[in-house]
Amino acid sequence: MTTAMCPGSFDPPTNGHIDIIERCAAVYDRVVVAVVSNPSKNSMFSLAERIELLGASLDGLDNIDLVSFDGLLVDFAAEQQVDVVVKGLRAGSDFDYELQMSQMNSHLRGIETVFMPTSPDWSFVSSSLVREVARLGGSVGDLVPPPVAAALEEKLA
Q: pLDDT higher for 59 or 16?
């Protein structure tokens, strides 16, 4: 049994996140969706809300565990018996950052990272852009799952 981990802040979860997680669920036996708890970050959604939104957006996938963590990703991956970390890449700039992180993770714990290219449909989408467009009154309903669109509307009402 191979276990993959898809870590992120998911603030909010986007269709790009969901695409990567669903594709991982089709490849790996078990997928740990690890939502980082970062109290120093000014998140739009609480940790509990982000986990709830992911759960509602990933309904029907039975090989996914939604969990939160803080601290080093590699330590949490070891606790969860993760075989590989999967990171979605939108562009070359993502690769530069993620390659450095993957090499550090390999150095610290020997864990490997697999890079999965984002679908071209979602390569321009990021949580920060979704938050900005939503705060400014723009429509983001086609960029996020329906439960997230509803939560954004409620949060910004």
A: 16
From 68, 90, 106, 155, the catalytic residue: 90
Active site residue 17: yes
Task: Determine the pLDDT at residue 93.
Answer: 82
Catalytic residue among 17, 23, 30, 131: 17
> 133 and 115 in contact (C-beta within 8 Å)?
no
Question: Which pair of tokens denotes residue 92?
Answer: 């070359």
State yes or no: is 109 an active-site residue. no
Going from the C-alpha of 112 to that of each of 3, 54, 78, 89, 153, the distances in angstroms are 12, 25, 12, 16, 38
Q: Two tokens at 39?
A: 């109290």
How far is it, in rounded angstroms, from Cα 75 to Cα 62? 25
Active site residue 23: no
CA angle 7, 11, 13 (to 5 degrees): 75
Mean pLDDT across 30-50: 91
Domains parsed from the chain with CATH numbers? 3-156 (3.40.50.620)
Q: Which of helix, strand or coil describes residue 88?
A: strand
